[in-house]
Amino acid sequence: MQPHQLNPEIEPQFEAVNDYIINHLGSTVPLVEKIGHYIVESGGKRLRPLLVLLGANACGYQGQHHIPLAAIIEFIHTATLLHDDVVDNSELRRGKDTANARWGNAPSVLVGDFLYSRAFQVMVEIGSMEVMRVIADATNVIAEGEVLQLLNCKNPDTSEEAYMQVILGKTATLFEAAAETGAILADSSAQAREALRLYGRHLGIAFQLVDDLMDYLSSAEEMGKNVGDDLAEGKPTLPLIQAMKAGNEDERQLIRQCIRAGGLDDLQPVLDIVHRTGAIDYTKAAAQREADRAVAALEALPASSFRDTLEQIAELAVNRSR
Fold this sequence. Notes:
Elements: H1 11-23, H2 30-40, H3 47-58, H4 66-88, E1 92-93, E2 96-97, H5 99-103, H6 105-126, H7 129-152, H8 160-185, H9 190-214, H10 220-223, H11 229-232, H12 238-246, H13 249-261, H14 267-276, H15 279-297, H16 305-317
Antiparallel strand pairs: 1-2
Helix pairs in contact: 1-4, 2-6, 3-4, 3-8, 3-16, 4-6, 4-7, 4-8, 7-8, 8-9, 9-15, 12-13, 12-14, 12-15, 15-16
Cofactor: Mg(2+)
Family: Belongs to the FPP/GGPP synthase family.
Protein name: Octaprenyl diphosphate synthase
């Protein structure tokens, strides 16, 4: 079951967001439109825009601006995917060729820029300076998070704290903005707005922890990307950081060498170390703690089916296969 199917009340709004996205990908340059449609329609869960809808509804919003706002969040997310795949030289996402694998790096970067600018065009139409402030700040932090991840790449001395700073910036910040801006539209209390902001932050961290964990657990078919991609790119994610901490000296040196060099020559030995040292369970436990914090933050909101769905999404985030 897809997340939006958890709540029948939200499904018509979710479909309206999909229609809005498709209707706002138009461009006088055919390649822009072609790549935009390709990446937007490539099978994502639309989890971030769903948070906008659920947050707004949980706060009693009665207007229609949550539809374009949800589309804005998806445009920004899609732009980051286009740029990420270029930076990471990725060839597979959601089980399909990446845009850069199909059309090349330059068009992918430029269409990512187009989607960023289209998001801000729609934001102007909504007319909320506070929404614009939160999203502009979030976009800036996301860019910083991506640069920080690039600096940590192939650095085996990356600490758990530095890793958490990366995923807070590059992933959790957009979750946070999505949930919080739904509350802003509803003109909610500071308490409700903070509750949704914290929910989004902790959910985003949990989501990324599980995403990084699956690189050492799943098949390519389950993940929709190549197994071992993070190791191949020399990314020191939490499973590797913890495995180095818990492993013996030989194991630690092998992982350090693999992070520095990148590639998949030693994928199987690294997988064995990650499992043997308990790094899988360590990362799972960290993700569950974040999901629990997300659910706890929702206690400040009034009871509703929308709050219940937000709680269910937090549980799904840590119990998924892709």
